[in-house]
Design brief:
It is a single chain. The protein contains 24 helices and 15 strands. By secondary structure, the protein is an alpha+beta fold. The strands form three sheets. Strands 5, 7, 8, 10, 13 and 15 form a six-stranded antiparallel beta sheet that branches. Strands 6-9-14-11-12 form a five-stranded antiparallel beta sheet. It has a four-stranded mixed beta sheet with strand order 1-2-4-3, with helices on both faces. Strand 11 and strand 12 form a beta hairpin. The longest helix has 30 residues.
Length: 649
């Protein structure tokens, strides 16, 4: 249905757009949740038109806005025909066509960046236009880290365009642009601080980058074969550089456009090839280069048209823009010969029309080759495999049906886990991504993913999630029956089970919602008198069991020294989180690394009961309650009970 490498991200952001508060309460305030410029437009459209229609409205609305903005910008700067071709360079690019079908944040971030650049580079732009450009730059900046990088490389382009109006006027417009940039930033900061106590919107992303840097989440090793496989898009800078060199008229605006595109491409290569990054293996990151690409193509066409060339030049360039995309649409295979075929198809009209004007023919050929390289890049496969078809719509409808079945966090704050056939490219995986794949997939006591049962295989599985719900998703009734039979061999049987179907899924998805209660325990001893508060924690004067954590993530708030636990004994912790999120675990020694069976507990309207059983590989000597909110957010909670319990057999 969709390209495998986009599964998680698209589902995450669509899930937040449909049910923002529910996901924040269940999984905490992670870096996905603060990309507000990618989430909130969908959320508002969903509330006005419904998810399916809202997705179409936002995608086609942004596409139309980009085309109109490019047309006006280049029409004012060069001519009406150049404006049409600049809009066509966006509309016919496969990366932009893909925007109509997907929900990853590059859709909104790249579109906001494109419209903002068009406003900033508009001849004679006023203070209102400059302020609006700043607003759009802010939305692009907060949409994705790579969009922020692309914005940095587009900075010289904005400066060159503003400086055309004179130094004094340029500083005035830059001031208004900065003011516009601050408006969404301050508004979003106020919203997140008021709702969640988060004042620094960069902290969740910085924590992720630190985790990546420290190697806790290993990045895939990028081999040179991967660089070659993804070369079509970044190699597009080569023919465009050649076209720039032969175009009759070159100015600072043209050079700044080249820097905006080639600078971002160079950043990707530098980070991936020389610094162990992985952006080249995530092809949709190239979409953030699309605004720079289109501006460079438009500037080359515009500067070529300034030489007094005839209509033949513009017709040939138009064929160079459209030919590669139409050729791929006619199922030319993705082979090394494809590039030659694409260049030839779109260069034929250029050859006959521009044969007497060799320089202009080379310009058209350079644009043709660049468009051909983007057309056969991996980012185009989804777009041109199902031309103009919005493939997110069926799974969006199915996710909405599934969300109506699941328990709400405000009514039942216990965890919800998912168990399904985790094959890349299946609707089930995409469906579950709407509830954040990595955080809600079923894991065993050692933190390993529990494999979905093979109908031919044997063995049994055990439920290690404590109290909570397990959602089983399957592609057929037989597959669901096999999974449920496997669970019947467990030592924990569900207290309630409800089977359901999701007709909107393709094919129809079958599932079951199983509710597990905690094992039956009896208290052996209370540990409330052993509570030790960390110096960074603030304890309520009126209630010693209510505390406020330190402001940094993983700040320790409460330590409880543990007695030696006998076989069959466990730790029972009951607490109510009033603000933020807490990490509760058992550990051996005083270390900051995650301990044994770490549980993240978010804000809830009722106390949450947790049972922690020590694994056979560790001998914990303390219970830890730590801040699990992003940097800058203090979490508040009230401890109801901490005790040693044992199973009633």
């Amino acid at each position: 249905m969709v390209d495998a490498s986009e599964f998680h991200g698209r589902g995450f952001y669509l899930g937040y757009a449909m049910d923002f508060r529910e996901l924040v309460d269940r999984v905490g305030l992670n870096y996905y949740a603060v990309r507000f410029s990618g989430i909130f437009p969908d959320a508002w459209a969903f509330s006005l038109f419904g998810p399916e229609a809202g997705l179409v409205v936002v995608r086609y609305g942004l596409a139309g806005a980009c085309c109109v903005a490019l047309f006006v910008c280049f029409q004012k700067r060069y001519s009406t025909v150049v404006g049409v071709l600049a809009a066509l360079a966006w509309a016919m690019n496969p990366a932009a066509i893909r925007f109509l079908q997907t929900a990853y944040v590059d859709v909104t971030a790249s579109s906001f960046l494109c419209i903002g650049l068009a406003l900033a580079c508009l001849r004679g732009v006023g203070i209102v236009g400059a302020g609006a450009a700043g607003v759009l730059f802010s939305l692009a900046f907060w949409g994705h880290l790579h969009a922020a990088v692309a914005l940095v490389f587009a900075g010289p382009l904005v400066l060159v365009a503003l400086w055309e109006q004179g130094t004094k006027r340029a500083f005035l417009l830059m001031g208004w642009m900065l003011a516009g940039f601050l408006v969404p930033t301050i508004a979003a900061s106020g919203f997140y601080f008021y709702q969640f106590g988060l004042w620094d919107l960069t902290s969740p992303t910085r924590e992720l980058l630190k985790t990546l840097r420290d190697g806790h989440i290993p990045a895939p090793k990028l081999e040179w074969v991967e660089v070659v496989r993804h070369c079509p898009f970044w190699l597009a800078s080569v023919p465009l550089a050649a076209a720039l060199c032969v175009v009759p008229n070159r100015n600072r605006f043209l050079y700044a456009c080249f820097f905006a595109f080639a600078g971002y491409i160079a950043f990707l290569l530098w980070g991936d090839v020389f610094n162990g990054g992985y952006s080249l293996s995530l092809f949709y990151y190239f979409s953030f280069a699309l605004p720079g690409f289109v501006f460079l193509v438009g500037a080359i066409i515009g500067n070529a048209s300034m030489g007094g060339s005839s209509w033949k030049v513009l017709v040939a360039v138009g064929a160079a823009l459209c030919g590669p995309v139409l050729a791929v649409g006619w199922n030319i295979t993705n082979t090394p010969w494809s590039l030659a075929a694409l260049a030839m198809i779109s260069a034929v009209p250029a050859f006959f029309l521009l044969r007497p004007m060799g320089r202009y023919f080379l310009v058209a050929l350079g644009i043709s080759v660049a468009m051909g390289l983007t057309a056969i890049a991996p980012t185009s496969r989804l777009a041109l495999g199902n031309y103009w078809k919005g493939d997110d719509l069926p799974v969006l409808s199915a996710a909405r049906e599934l969300a109506a079945i699941l328990p709400r966090h405000e009514q039942k704050p216990s965890p919800v886990f998912f168990w399904y056939d985790d094959k890349v490219g299946t609707d089930l995986r995409m469906l579950q991504s709407f509830r954040l794949h990595e955080f809600t997939k079923w894991k065993d006591a050692d933190g390993a993913y529990v494999p979905f049962p093979d109908p031919e295989g044997g063995g049994s599985v055990s439920w290690h999630g404590g109290a909570g719900d397990l959602v089983v998703l399957a592609n057929s009734k037989n597959e669901l029956r096999t999974a449920l039979d496997r669970l019947q061999t467990s030592d924990r049987l569900p207290e309630a089970a409800r089977q359901f179907q999701i007709p909107a899924a393709s094919p129809i998805a079958y599932g079951a919602l199983l509710s597990f209660g905690e094992p039956r325990w009896r208290e052996v001893s209370s540990l409330l008198d052993r509570l030790e508060y960390h110096r960074k924690a603030k304890v309520s004067e009126s209630n010693r069991l209510e505390f406020l954590t330190g402001p940094r993530k993983w700040n320790r708030a409460v330590i409880v020294p543990l007695p030696e636990l006998s076989e069959g004994q466990a730790l029972r912790v009951v607490l109510k989180v009033l603000k933020g999120a807490l990490a509760v675990d058992m550990a051996e020694g005083d270390r900051n690394a995650p301990g044994d069976q770490t549980r993240i507990v978010s804000r809830a309207n009722m106390p949450v009961e947790i049972f922690l059983e020590p694994s056979k590989a560790a001998v914990p000597d303390r219970l830890r309650i730590r801040n699990a909110s992003p940097h800058g957010v203090r979490s508040r909670a009230r401890i109801v009970d901490v005790s040693v319990v044992e199973t009633i057999r």
